[in-house]
Structures are given as C-alpha cells and as structure tokens.
Amino acid sequence: MTGRAAPSGPPGDELKTCCADAYSSDAVALLLGDSYHPGGTALTRHLADVLGLAEGSRVLDVASGRGTTALLLAGTYRVHVDGVDYAPANTALAQDAARAAGLAGRAAFTTGDSEQLPYPDAVFDAAVCECALCTFPDKARAAAEFARVLKPGGRLGLTDVTADPARLPAELTGLAARIACVADARPLDEYAAILAGAGLRTVRTERHDQAMVRMLDQIEARLQLLRMTAAGRLTEAGVDLDAAPAVLAAARAAVTAGTLGYALLIAEKPESCSPG
Amino acid sequence: MTQDPPPRRKVDRDEVFVEFTKSICPMCKTPVDAQVNLRDNKVYLRKRCRAHGEFEALVYGDAEEYLASARFNKPGTIPLTFQTEVKDGCPSDCGLCPEHKQHACLGIIEVNTGCNLDCPICFADSGRRRDGYSITHEQCARMLDAFVASEGEAEVVMFSGGEPTLHKHILDFIDLALARPIRNVTLNTNGIRLATDKNFVAELGKRNRAPGRSVNIYLQFDGFDERTHREIRGRDLRAFKQRALDNCAEAGLTATLVAAVERGLNEHELGAVVEYGIDHPAVRSVVFQPVTHSGRHTPFDPLTRLTNPDVVRLIGEQRPDWFRKGDFFPVPCCFPTCRSLTYVLVDGEPGARTVVPIPRLLDVEEHLDYVTNRVLPDARVREALEKLWSASAFMATETTDAKLRATAEALDCADTCGIDLPEAVKDLSDKAFMIVVQDFQDPYTLNVKQLMKCCVEEITPDGRLIPFCAYNSVGYREQVRADMSGVPVAGVVPNALPLADRLADTAHGSRTLRPDTVAATAEQTP
C-alpha cells in the first residue's frame, strides 16, 4: 500500500499481499501491539456479546492475524473458531499461540484469501472481521464470500475504520495506510450497502470513534518509545519517523472532523436464502 | 363555582442513588448511615446525624469513572495478624480488625507531634507547641514489630510526624527499620533540616546504600508562588526546598515531591511541579494530595472540594503536550477511587522533553480488570503492574525497578515479532517518573466501604494498625495524642463553611465544636 507497491489501476493480489505483509511485519506488530485494531480486546468482547455467540457454535475469523481474537472467542465464549489470514507467517504464529493456550482443539488457522474463502457454503453460525474489510481491494467480493459461508440466519460482526475518502487529508492517503489502514476505508453506510449487495442485512451499527483516538495515542506513544531507544531499527523497518507526527496529527484532525472513525456493524443472513 | 386545583404531578429526583453505606457525623464522629448519589456526572456522599443534621460532600469529580473503576478492585490480601476484634463495627474497632479487607501496603510511624513550622494546613495538627509527644526507642521498635508481625516481609515504612527529622533518634529509628524485614524506608519531611544539615543528609545517603534496601525522601512541596508557601506553610520556604533537593541529589538520595493541593491556592501549579520534578536529578516522583480536611486547614466548601479526577484534569490542562484523559489509572490494592497514578517515560533535555505515559504503551486496563476479564492475561505482566499500581510503590526501590523492567519486557515483543529492543528499553526505570494522585478521606467524605479496604495504615505506639483516613477522621488521632502526651485533646471538626457558626478554635489551630453546640447536642440526644 505504499506508492511503490500499489500502482494506480486495479491493485488486486499485489495490494492484498502488501497489506498482509504490512500487518505481519515487525514494525507494525510493534506499533499496534497484540491487538491490531482500535478498541483492543475490550471491543472484541463487546462484538462477541452483541453477536450473542452460543457455546459450541462455529465461528469464522476473517483476517485472523496472530490469533488474538480467535483465541479469545474460543477461550471465553467456548466456540469453535476457524481463522483465515493472507499471511502464512501469521497462520504459523496463531497456530503456535493456540497450542500454547491449550486451545488447538477449538481454534484452527488457515492461510487463505478473504475473496475466496477456503470453506464450503453455509457452515458458520457467525463470522467476525475486525479492521480488515477496509484493506480488502474487492470489498463486494469479500462480502459475497462472508454471505456464502454463513448459515441462513448466521450473523456477521464487523468492526472497521470508517472514512470519507473524498474528504481525507493528503497525509492519510499514502504512507498512513500502512500505519492505520485508512486509505481504502469507507463511510459506515457504504459498508452496509456493500453487505446489502451480498444479501446481508445490517441489524445494528455503533460508532466507536474514541477507540480510534486511543489507538492513535498508542501508536504515537510507541513511536516515541522507539525514538527514545531504537530509532535506527525503526528506520530499518521502513517507518519514516519524520513523517509520523504529521500523519498522526492529520488523523486526529480527521477524527475530530468526522471524516475518520471506527464503527461496529452487525449484519444477518436471511433465514431463507434467495437463490444465486 | 369553585375550580378544582390542578392535578399534582410527580417529579423525578435530580440525582441517581447508587450506594447505601456508612460514614460518620463530621461533628460528633458518631457512625451514621450514608448514601452516594450522582448529579451532573459528579459523585456526592450525603449523610445525616440525628443530633447535628445533614452533611454532603463531593467525593469524586467524574461519575462515569467512579462507576467504571469498580472493575479495577483487586481482591484483598489477608494480613498475618489482626490487632483488634470486631465489636462495634467499622469504623469503631480499628485496627486492623478481622473484617478489614486488605493488608498494609504502607505503614506510617509518626515519631513526634512537634514541628519547626506552624503550617495553616496540617492534617496532623502539629506545630511548635510543646504539649505533644515523641516516641521512645522502645516504642518505635514495638511499632515496627507490630508492622512486621502483620506483614511478614513489609515493603515500606514511612516515618512522619510532626517533623520527624527533629526527633533526636530519627536515624536510630531508620536503622531499627532496616534491621527488620522491611525493604524500604521513606522519610516524610518539610526539608528544612535537609537544606541546612548536610551531615544529616549524608547519614541518610549512607543508609540508602545498604544492599537491597532504600531510604527515600518524601518532601513536602506545594508549588512555586510565594502565596502558595505563605498560605499553606505560613512561610516562604522556596529556597529551603531547592537546597534540600540539591543536597539529596549530592548524597544519592531519591525524593518524591508531595503537594497538598487546595482549591483557589495552588491548583494552577500542578504542571509546573511535575516539570520541576522531571528536571531535578533527585526527584523521581510527584504526589498530589487534595488537602485532607482533617486537623488544621483553611475554610473550604465540601461541595466544591478537589477530588482525584479534578487533579488529573488540571494536570492535563496545564501540560497538554504530555497528558491526556486516560493516562492515569486507578490503584487496585486500595479502593480504586482512593488513588490514581501513572508512570511516564522521559527523554530529551529540559524544556524539550518527550514524555510518554506507560498506560498509552500498554493496555493497563486489560491486565488490571478483576471483574469482566474472563481470560486471565499474562500473569507476569499483571503481577508487575499490580506492584507498580500500588500504595507501596516508591521510585528507586528494588521492587519498583524490577517491576518496571518486567513491564518493559512486556513492551518488547522480541519473542513474537522479532524486534529486540536494545538494553536501553529494558532499563526503563532510569527514564521512568511516577505521578500519584491521592484523595485521603476526611470526616466529611469518609465512606466506610473505602475505609474497609484501606492499605495505608498508621502504626500506633500500642501496636495497632489504624487505616490512615480513620486515624485522621474518626478521633483515633486525638485519642492517641491525649494518651501519649497526658494533655487532653479536643475532638477536631472540619473547618467547613457550612459549619462555620458552630465551631470554635482548638489550642492547635484546628476547629472543634463550640461549647454551646455541644450542650445543644446533649439535650437532643436520647
């Protein structure tokens, strides 16, 4: 998603690889911590609560990263979780984490593409996707895949960056995507429309913009810590320390202006699925 | 034709009732029922004494945070021994009685009542009058033994007063503490002797070098305006404070700046105190204490007094580049509304500092949530944070250094993400600075719910451990002083504006019930 890796024109697989790379690269891991999305595990719990996950149900975690959410769901809500991520490195780390937590029996991880989910039709009671749809190049295709693998009556729980791309400041359309993945985020109603196009009916939306502010604070604090202790390594990892303050300031201003935020959305697949 | 009166309509109360608890009458100290109510996102404690009427005080400036902090209430630890029995119930059986919910994180020994100042604000009602007491060598040993019997291995004891540096045996007392399983000693002082007696400071420095032990200075430090000094201390002590700290730095002693903060006096100086502390080589922490309206103090309005969230807000307003909402976190060992604190990492030169609050780096909330956290977080990180977010946390002690290191390791994700931070980040304790906000309770604000989990205890010469806020509020301080000195001591009543016409001065400058008020009380009491 840097200028070099995301040429103009249809980005396709190259962009997906780039974004997955960014998310599995060390610098991003360090900056964003164990839980790569605004709201952290507290918002994940809230998401699970509003989804009403029943014990023993089968849940899909799309863009499962290092498995933090999947393991939380498997451990706390006693559900069976399949995690799918585009980065093989993440799959391996998530599998290790599952074994270490004694949850390997309830949490399985696979490398795969959110636009071609490696699962049969109508097998999941619920699916979660945190801070990832905004990074998917073909969002309609991903939404259709969510709909396909959900059982009739199954629910999708989404938390994601919301942005009004036309009004985003220039600082947030380039390098910043790598830090906060905002470049291809959409307004909340557009996410709902994309899901509706796939036959998923939005039943609940919540704004969590403060979670975005807190994540910006956390990123800034981590950058400052690294500047104190390991400025050279940050540069090596490709984080432009000099650009960071302006990007963060622009992001804060955008949250205040309402052009950037974070939201939760619950959508349902109808009981009687229309053909096609 | 007569018209019917308009139908009477029910109206809603203007407050949310959230707790039923116990408190005391601020005038006669009798235990009374109390209720906690929320109005305008603030928390108020209200109570009624059958003899003296109704009283209300602001206890927390942010109702949302008050309710949210309930999750950060750590299960208490049972002390090894109790000193009293349950007889009349809290707060009359101190202490500690078997109903107390927490052990002593911090034990306080007041070595005397005498002082070389007569501060207009002094919860201990100390001063230059010679009608008080000093403890003996034997009494100090007994007090320390009582503390060790209760704690086994104790983390920290504080010597206080009066002015403890005036006690001719204070160095012996410190030695008595260091000869026992007590890891750290902190000396609570106005700094005059530290500023003027370099030999004394050198003696303290020597004791601070004992392996595995530390002696730290808890220096009264209220601000920089001359008015602040005159109104709180009765004297301009600015030069003394500076010299005291310079002498500490020279002797290798670490100091905490302790500010009593009063509305309308020095609430504008909080940011400056933090910055001064960060810049001074001897200072590793700052403690802000809204003035405890026990003992001697200036007149105040209980409904607009300063509380922890107010102090935290003021710090943020005065150093907006450094602090934001959410940077301070409640301390789970006591009741979470009693104390909030944060650690910051500091880098750069004076005037161009980078200040990074640790709660922004690490989700402290995730680790110290004892109620909604159903998956246990990393036990080592939790244990480290529990020790750091504690009433026993003092900077430059072995325990705090070790726990800061453990926290730094939690930030360092070498295992999972391959970036191995250099040694510098593992020795974060050099860059770490602690800021504490502690609202002690007084006879107006006392809530037995909080008192029952208090972890800061006054050790009495007869070997009891009395929660600090009970000692100052319920009448224990007056009893101990009378017993120890043989001079009768009047019951102290807060110098609150609503009580002004019912109070008279005591010999020590605090306030007590006016004699005719006492008589009226006696008639009304059945």
Question: Could you explain the architecture of this structure?
Answer:
The complex is a heterodimer of chains A (276) and B (526). Chain A is of the alpha/beta class and 276 residues long. In chain A, 44% of the residues lie in helices and 19% in strands. Chain A has a single domain, classed as Rossmann fold, CATH 3.40.50.150. Chain A has a 7-stranded mixed sheet. Chain B is of the alpha/beta class. Chain B has a domain at 80-372 and 431-458: Aldolase class I (TIM Barrel, Alpha-Beta Barrel). In chain B, 30% of the residues lie in helices and 21% in strands. Chain B has 19 helices and 18 strands. Chain B has helices spanning 63-68, 137-151, 170-178, 192-196, 198-208, 226-233, 238-250, 270-279, 308-318, 358-361, 364-367, 379-388, 398-411, 414-417, 423-426, 448-451, 468-473, 476-485, 515-524; strands at 16-24, 31-39, 42-49, 53-60, 106-110, 154-160, 182-189, 214-220, 255-261, 283-290, 329-330, 339-347, 354-357, 432-438, 456-459, 465-467, 503-505, 511-513. In chain B, the strands form 3 sheets. In chain B, strands 5, 6, 7, 8, 9, 10, 11, 12, 13, 14, 15 and 16 form a 12-stranded mixed sheet that branches. Chain B has a 4-stranded antiparallel sheet with strand order 1-2-3-4. Chain B has a two-stranded antiparallel ribbon with strand order 17-18. In chain B, strand 6 (154-160), helix 3 (170-178) and strand 7 form a beta-alpha-beta unit. Classes of the chains: A alpha/beta (276), B alpha/beta (526).
CATH superfamily of the domain at 80-372 and 431-458 in chain B: Aldolase class I
Task: Report the average pLDDT across residues of chain A.
Answer: 82
CATH topology of the domain at 80-372 and 431-458 in chain B: TIM Barrel
Radius of gyration of chain B, in Å, reads 23 Å
Span between N and C termini of chain B?
52 Å
User: Which fold name is given in CATH as the topology of chain A?
Assistant: Rossmann fold
